[in-house]
Amino acid sequence: MTLKNPTCGDVINLEINVSDEKITDIGFTGEGCTISQSSASMMTDAVLSKTITESLEMAQIFSDMVMGQKRSAEDLEKLGDAAILSSVMQFPARIKCATLCWWALRKSLGEEVDD
Hints:
Elements (H helix, E strand, L loop, with lengths): L1 E4 L4 E10 L2 E10 L2 H14 L4 H15 L6 H6 L16 H14 L7
Antiparallel strand pairs: 1-2, 2-3
Helix pairs in contact: 1-4, 2-4
Protein name: NifU-like protein
Pfam family, one: NifU_N
Organism: Companilactobacillus nantensis DSM 16982
């Protein structure tokens, strides 16, 4: 699944293997800013070995977090290192950079999303 952020040129190509409803392998290639690449790296670590349901929930938690919506500490803990990107909400132009890989994850797992 390849997604692009036309406003700044970020590109993420996400490859996922799923077996028995679990992510068994995940990787990405891409170009772009540090935020988009860091977010993708942290996301791949966070969702590896998670179920599709867990991964989609994590994607929603991440999206809510960077949009400034309150989430419980327990929810943020599910994100692992990716929770450090919560400060992105202070820079609206960077939200799409941080969420691009999470949108690619959602689309790859069959969720209907608008990119």
